[in-house]
Amino acid sequence: MTETIQRPMRKGEQTRATILEAALELASRDGLEGLTIGVLADRIGMSKSGVFAHFGSREDLQLGVLRLYNHQFEQEVVYPSIREPRGLPRLQSLFRRWVDRVSLEIASGCIYISGAVEYDDRPGPIRDQLLDMVDTWQRALQRAAQQALDAGHLRPGTDPKQLVFEMYGLVLALHHDARFIRSPVAVSRAQAGFQRLIASARLE
Prior knowledge:
By secondary structure, the protein is mainly α. It is 72% helix and 0% strand.
């Protein structure tokens, strides 16, 4: 197998990456709508025109932040999980890594979840991009659930879409209770809920 050699990032690419990392941190804390060029420029010690040289508009910046978040999510949750055997091991890995990531985001917030609240009724490119990312993630979960069913790990008649709907509900409850109620047991409750959900669908 030929090893891929990554070329060093050029200065412009490094600057753009630095801007995006800082923008993602701000958006995680203040929401995508709270992300402004002025605040971002102050944060990284650049002029507004310097930021605009890399992103032509605030919307371009917000879309870049979404793509960066999605890339990080795939690297931390999706790709490691698909190396697990097809079926229940893969589905369990996807949920476990998802919960691990959300638990690390408690202080800031999950862009998928907070973005959905911000843009649920606001049509436009940002909502479209966010919806496409969330839809891709849900379809990946549904695929894993279907594979678990096909492998005989789940009871015949198990509905993969319903299973994923309930998994999503557990993570939404985790995010709500951890961030809003400040519950110290939100993560363990989500994990226990998933174990019960799988136990009820598992083929013994």
